[in-house]
Amino acid sequence: MKADRLLSILLLLQTRGRVPAHELADRLEVSVRTIYRDVEALSASGVPVYAERGRHGGIELLAGFRTDVTGLTADESRALFILAAQGAHAALGLDAALGSALRKVMAALPAPYRPAAEVTSRRILVDATRWKGGPQPAVDLDVLQDAVFTDRRLRLRYRHSGAKEPSTYTVDPYGLVSKAGVWYLVADRRARPRLFRADRVHSAALLPDPVKRRPGVDLADAWEELRRQVEERPGGLDVTVRVRRSRLDMFLRLNASSLAELPDDEGEEEWATVRLSYGVVREARQLLQFADALEVVSPPEVRAEVAAAAASVTELYQRVSGPSS
After folding, report:
1. 49-52 and 58-61: which strand pairing?
2. Interior/surface letters 50-60, b for 16+ CB within 10 angstroms, e for the rest
3. What's the pLDDT tens digit per position in 222-251?
4. Helix and strand counts by DSSP (H, E) for the chain
5. Contact assessment for residue 89 and residue 95, using Cβ atoms and an 8 Å cutoff
6. Going by C-beta distance under 8 Å and a sequence separation of 6 or more, which residues neighbour residue 180?
7. Are 152 and 208 in contact (CB under 8 A)?
8. Cβ–Cβ under 8 Å, residues 295 and 241
9. Were 211 and a residue from 93, 172, 182, 199 both cysteine, which residue would form a disulfide, CB within 3.0 to 4.6 Å?
10. In terms of Cα–Cα distance, which of 139, 213, 138, 202 is closest to 171?
């Protein structure tokens, strides 16, 4: 709609200052001629906007002009309050700033939209943590944030999963990503993308050198490359199990990351067949928590691993409990 486009032009100019007509045309997906007609319409309505021709020209608002029009629709105002998910802002030390920003947005909203926005904040809750994920370790993101926002290199002392001692790396940060409640630093090491869990960083120090990122690569590009590597990594071990349907829902929730395919939900049998994918045999030990409602069908090495784990638990229990009288 033309009214939406005029408002978009006004807000872009207010935010960016002088903007070339062709850039506005590209962003709003119209022709340059349409942009100039829109500028004339804004000027006719009393908005002090003008265009300068030439190589360094563009469209600009008169210096000092501001509008308090938010331009938010009802759906956009709801989206802002849903965006205020718990956890991420607290980890970045921005909870107070977020609350202040939302109060200002609420005050600037058109009166008819305010009740819907208030109801949204009370009716929608976003919890990014996984079920029964256990307590999350404290994460200090201060130095990592400093590196990200000042474009400086970092020296990390980082402990890999399963390693007893941390290793030292010099990295070039792209940014921070929160994935299912876990914070990651995305950075290049020797011009290759790497992923570092923030809760495994023992220490981080800013270096005086500026970052050396790969040309044309930003955070979204680096994250997509790393995400694809993780998700497309071959599981290596296909496992088939049978699960009692009375426990199937809980089993699927707790093993969602290992599912190779979803089972048939419409079966009437007592047992459902589920196919999983693991990286190594030892990972299958997590199946032990459903031992009373699960049977490993294949492969034999996983069946043996789960049986051995069950025997170890039984032996430990008997040793702790002592001989029965």
Report:
1. antiparallel
2. ebeeeeeebbb
3. 999 988 877 765 556 888 999 988 888 888
4. 11, 11
5. yes
6. 128, 129, 130
7. yes
8. yes
9. 172
10. 213
